[in-house]
Design brief:
The complex is a heterodimer of chains A (391) and B (374). By secondary structure, chain A is an alpha+beta fold. Chain A has three domains: 84 residues, Acyl-CoA dehydrogenase/oxidase, N-terminal domain (Butyryl-Coa Dehydrogenase, subunit A, domain 1), CATH 1.10.540; 113 residues, Butyryl-CoA Dehydrogenase, subunit A, domain 2 (Beta Barrel), CATH 2.40.110; 137 residues, Butyryl-CoA Dehydrogenase, subunit A, domain 3. Helix content of chain A is 44%, strand content 15%. Chain A is built from eleven helices and ten strands. In chain A, the strands form three sheets. In chain A, strands 1-4-5-8 form a four-stranded mixed beta sheet. In chain A, strands 2-3-7-6 form a four-stranded antiparallel beta sheet, with no helix packed on it. In chain A, a hairpin with a 2-residue loop joins β2 and β3. The longest helix of chain A has 29 residues. Chain A starts with 6 loop residues before the first helix and ends in a 6-residue tail after the last helix. The mean pLDDT of chain A is 93. Chain B has eleven helices and ten strands. In chain B, the strands form three sheets. A four-stranded mixed beta sheet of chain B has the order 1-4-5-8, covered by helices on one side. Classes of the chains: A alpha+beta (391), B alpha+beta (374).
C-alpha cells in the first residue's frame, strides 16, 4: 500500500497549477461559458490550443505520434487538475479518433488528421447513437451503400455536438444489413462542413445546452474515409489506446463544487443561523465529502491497475456508475442547501454561484445516461465482473 | 503509488485464509456464539503459533515487527471468517495502547506475553453515557501515596470476562481531558463484571470498579495524558473494525453471487435477473469503496502521517456500506437468508455491531464537517 504520487508527478501538478493561474482567473469555469456564444467558444478553443502547445493534450499518445507516452498516474494528475479548475480538456479527437487512426488508419489518414487532431484544430462530433439505437447501439440502422468510390449514407445520428461548430463526425454505419448486428458495421469519417444532404437540428436540453440531431440524406462519403476493415467497425470503435480511463475528473470537479458549497454555507444564513452551523447540512456535506473521497480512491485504483497492465473492467464501470450518481447527489444537495435561491437560472442576478449548481444539477442526469447508462454499467459489473449469467 | 498488497501481505492474506478456513469454519463460529468463553484456548494457542498476536509488536519484545497496514490485511480475513474471541481486544486495544504509552518495564512485562498468547487484554473506555469522547470518562482514579484507587463503572468492555488485564481510562484531574490510563489486573479486588447479551453474540461486559487499588506503577503513560493515547487507539480501532467489515462485506458479496448463480426460480438462475444483478453490482461497489478507503487510512497510520480526516471518512463510509451490503445480501437470499441456519444473519448481526463501534457514521461525519471547515 502506498497512496502517494511520485514526486515528479506532484511537481507536474504544480506546473499545471502555475500555468493555469497565469492563463486564467481563479474563478474561471468553462461551465459558466455559453457554448452557443461564438466569443465564449473561441475562448475555449484558444485555451485548449495553449494546452496543446504545452504538449499536455496528447501526453498519452505514443512518442512516434508526437505524444509523451505519459504514465497513467501522470495522466490522472493532469485530468484531476483540469477538472478541479473547471476546464474540460477532454477532446473526442485526441481521446478517440486519434488513437483509432493510430491503430487502424491508413498512412494517408494519419497524415491528414493526426497533426490537426493533436493541435485540437478539428472539432469532432461522435456519430454513434441513433433515435432508435441507444443502449442497444449495435442495432444501429444508418445505412452506408457502396457506390463507386463512395459510400452513400442515409439515416440519423443523435445526442452529438454537430450543431456546435463541428467540422467532422466519426461515425458507425451499417454496411452489411444481413450480417449479425455487430458484424455489419463500419467506422467512417464524414465531413459535416458544407456537406450536401446533411441537416443539423438542435435539440434543447433541460439544462442550458443543446445536443445535435444530424440527418443524412444520401450523403456521399469517400471510401478513403473508411477506417479499418469494412464491416469491422464495431471493433474499430471499441479500440482503446492506453489512456487512463478512471473517470477521476468527476471527484476532482466534485471537490471544487463541495468547496464552493462549504464557502456558501459559511457566508449565508437561514432563519438567523449560518448554514454551516445547521447540523443536518453539516452531516449531508460531510457525507458527500466521504463519497467524493471514496470515488477518488476507486478511480486511482482503475488508473493504477492500468499502470500494472491489469484490465479494469468491473472497476471502470464501478467508477462510472458511482461517480456520476455521486455528482447527481452532490448538485442535488447544493440546490437544496440554497433553498429558494436554488431554483434560479444562471441568468438571474439573484442566482448564487452564478446559477452553476442549478444548471449542473439538471445536467448531471446526462452523466448517468451518456456513455453507457448506469443500468448498462451495472449489467457489466454483474455479468463481466461477477460472472452472473446473462438474462 | 501502489494500491495493491505487497508480496508479504499477499502471503499473509493467503496464509490467513487457509488457516481460518481450516480452524475457524462457520461451525466453530456458531459453537462459540453460545460458548461461555466465546473462544477456545486451543485455537488461541494456534493463533499465537502463527505469530499473529505479535504481528506488529517490535522484535525486541518477541514480536514480528510488521506494520499496522499488515495487521489490517489480517483483520480483513478475520472479518471474513468472523473469528470469535479476544484477538482484537488483546492486540489492537490492549497491545497497541502499551506499545504507544508504555514505559520500558511495562513493554518488557506485557508485550512478550501478548505475542506468545499468554495473556488476554482489553480496553475499558466507555461508560453508561456511551460517549466516545473524553467527557464520557467519569470513572475516577485518586492517588493515595504510591497507589491509585479506581471507582466507577465501565460499560461495553469487550472480552473483559476472559481478560487478564484491562487498560482502564480514568479521570485524574479537573480538566476536560485530564484522563490517565492504568493497566489493571482483571482479578483485582473490587471489580465485578456482568456479561451483556449483544446483537453480535460477542462478549461485552459491564465492569464495576469499587475502590480498586492499583500501584502507581500501573499508570500507563504520564498522568493526565491518557487521552492522547486513547485518540490513537480510537483511530487504530476504527480502522481495524473497518478492515473486519471490509472482509466481511467481501464474503457477503461472494456468498450472494454464488447463491444467485445456483438458486433457480421461474426456470432460470435468479442471478440472471437484472434486479438481482444490480443488487450485486451495488454490493460490489460498496465493497470496492470499503477496501480502498480503509487501506488509505491504514497506510497513513502506518506511515505516521496525520490521518484524522482519512480515519473519519473510512469509518463513516464502511459502517454504512457494510450495512447496505448485508441488506442487499439478505434481499437477494430471500427467506433462507434470515434463518438461523444460514450464515447471512451471522454477518448482518456483526455488521450492526461494528457499525457503532468506535463511533458510528454520524459521529465521524461530525469530525469530517469540522475538518471541512464547516
Amino acid at each position: 500500500m502506498d497512496f502517494k504520487f511520485e514526486t515528479v508527478d506532484e511537481n507536474f501538478r504544480s506546473e499545471i497549477k502555475d500555468f493555469v493561474d497565469a492563463e486564467l482567473p481563479w474563478n474561471w469555469r468553462e461551465e459558466d461559458l455559453d457554448p452557443e456564444d461564438a466569443k465564449d467558444s473561441i475562448l475555449v478553443r484558444e485555451f485548449k490550443r495553449k494546452l496543446g502547445d504545452q504538449g499536455w493534450l496528447t501526453m498519452a499518445w505514443p512518442k512516434e505520434y508526437g505524444g509523451q507516452a505519459a504514465s497513467h498516474m501522470r495522466q490522472v494528475v493532469f485530468n484531476e487538475e483540469m477538472a478541479y479548475r473547471g476546464i474540460s480538456a477532454g477532446d473526442a479527437g485526441i481521446r478517440m479518433v486519434g488513437p483509432i487512426l493510430m491503430l487502424y488508419g491508413t498512412d494517408e489518414q494519419k497524415e491528414q488528421f493526426l497533426p490537426k487532431i493533436a493541435s485540437a484544430e478539428i472539432n469532432w462530433s461522435q456519430g454513434y447513437s441513433e433515435p432508435d439505437s441507444g443502449s442497444d447501439l449495435a442495432s444501429l440502422q444508418t445505412r452506408a451503400v457502396e457506390d463507386g468510390d463512395d459510400f452513400v449514407v442515409s439515416g440519423s445520428k443523435i445526442w452529438n455536438s454537430a450543431h456546435a461548430d463541428s467540422d467532422w463526425m466519426f461515425m458507425l454505419v451499417r454496411t452489411e444489413p444481413d450480417a449479425p448486428k455487430h458484424r455489419g458495421i463500419s467506422f467512417v469519417l464524414t465531413e459535416l462542413e458544407g456537406q450536401e444532404g446533411v441537416t443539423i437540428e438542435k435539440i434543447p436540453m433541460m439544462w442550458d445546452a443543446y445536443r445535435g440531431l444530424v440527418t443524412f440524406d444520401n450523403v456521399r462519403v469517400p471510401k478513403k474515409n473508411l477506417v479499418g476493415e469494412q464491416n469491422r467497425g464495431w471493433y474499430v470503435g471499441a479500440a482503446l489506446l492506453d489512456f487512463e480511463r478512471s473517470g477521476v475528473d468527476r471527484p476532482a470537479r466534485a471537490k471544487r463544487v463541495l468547496e464552493d458549497l462549504v464557502a456558501f454555507c459559511k457566508e449565508n444564513k437561514r432563519n438567523g443561523r449560518l448554514l454551516s452551523e445547521d447540523p443536518i447540512i453539516r452531516n449531508e456535506l460531510a457525507d458527500l465529502a466521504v463519497q467524493i473521497e471514496t470515488t477518488r480512491l476507486m478511480c486511482y485504483n482503475v488508473a493504477w491497475m492500468q499502470s500494472q497492465d491489469l484490465i479494469p473492467n468491473k472497476e471502470a464501470s464501478i467508477t462510472k456508475v458511482y461517480g456520476t450518481e455521486m455528482i447527481n447527489r452532490l448538485y442535488g444537495l447544493g440546490v437544496k442547501i440554497m433553498g429558494m435561491y436554488g431554483q434560479l437560472d444562471p441568468d438571474s442576478k439573484w442566482a448564487p454561484l452564478r446559477g452553476r449548481i442549478e444548471n449542473a444539477w439538471l445536467r448531471s442526469f446526462g452523466g448517468m445516461v451518456a456513455a453507457g447508462t448506469s443500468e448498462i454499467q451495472r449489467n457489466v459489473i454483474a455479468q463481466r465482473g461477477l460472472e452472473l449469467p446473462r438474462g | 503509488m501502489d494500491l495493491g498488497l505487497n508480496e508479504a501481505q499477499q502471503m499473509l492474506k493467503t496464509t490467513a485464509q487457509d488457516f481460518l478456513a481450516a480452524e475457524c469454519p462457520d461451525t466453530y463460529v456458531r459453537e462459540m456464539e453460545g460458548d461461555e468463553r466465546g473462544y477456545t484456548p486451543e485455537l488461541w494457542a494456534k493463533i499465537a503459533e502463527q505469530g499473529w498476536l505479535g504481528l506488529i509488536i517490535p522484535e525486541q519484545y518477541g514480536g514480528v515487527e510488521l506494520e499496522f497496514q499488515d495487521l489490517v490485511v489480517l483483520l480483513e480475513e478475520m472479518g471474513r471468517y468472523m473469528l470469535p474471541g479476544p484477538f482484537f481486544s488483546t492486540v489492537v486495544l490492549g497491545g497497541m495502547s502499551i506499545m504507544d504509552a508504555g514505559n520500558e518495564e511495562q513493554k518488557q512485562e506485557f508485550l512478550p506475553r501478548i505475542a506468545e498468547g499468554q495473556i488476554i487484554m482489553t480496553l475499558a473506555l466507555t461508560e453508561p453515557s456511551a460517549r466516545w469522547d473524553a467527557a464520557g470518562v467519569e470513572l475516577t482514579a485518586t492517588q493515595d501515596g504510591d497507589s491509585y484507587t479506581l471507582s466507577g463503572t465501565k460499560l461495553f468492555v469487550p472480552n473483559a470476562h476472559v481478560s487478564d488485564y484491562m487498560v482502564v481510562a480514568a479521570k485524574t484531574g479537573t480538566g476536560d481531558e485530564d484522563i490517565s490510563l492504568f493497566i489493571v489486573p482483571t482479578q483485582s479486588d473490587g471489580i465485578t463484571q456482568t456479561l451483556l447479551k449483544t446483537i453480535a453474540s460477542d462478549r461485552q461486559s459491564e465492569v464495576a470498579f469499587d475502590n480498586v487499588k492499583v500501584p502507581a506503577s500501573a499508570l500507563l503513560g504520564s498522568e493526565n495524558n491518557g487521552w492522547n493515547t486513547i485518540n490513537k487507539v480510537m483511530q487504530w480501532g476504527a480502522i481495524g473494525k473497518c478492515a473486519e467489515m471490509s472482509g466481511g462485506g467481501q464474503q457477503v458479496l461472494d456468498m450472494t453471487v454464488d447463491y444467485a448463480k445456483q438458486r433457480t426460480q421461474f426456470g432460470r438462475p435468479i442471478g440472471s435477473f437484472q434486479a438481482i444483478q444490480h443488487h450485486c453490482a451495488n454490493m460490489a461497489t460498496d465493497v470496492e469503496g470499503s477496501k480502498f478507503i480503509t487501506y488509505q487510512a491504514a497506510w497513513r497510520l502506518s506511515e505516521g502521517l496525520p490521518a484524522e480526516r482519512e480515519v473519519a471518512m473510512a469509518k463513516a463510509w464502511v459502517s454504512d456500506a457494510y450495512r447496505r451490503v448485508c441488506a442487499l445480501g439478505h434481499q437477494s437470499h430471500g427467506a433462507i437468508g434470515f434463518t438461523k441456519e444460514h450464515n447471512m444473519q451471522l454477518y448482518s448481526r456483526r455488521a450492526k455491531a461494528s457499525e457503532i463501534m468506535f463511533g458510528d457514521t454520524d459521529f465521524h461525519l461530525a469530525s469530517v464537517a469540522d475538518i471541512l471547515g464547516l
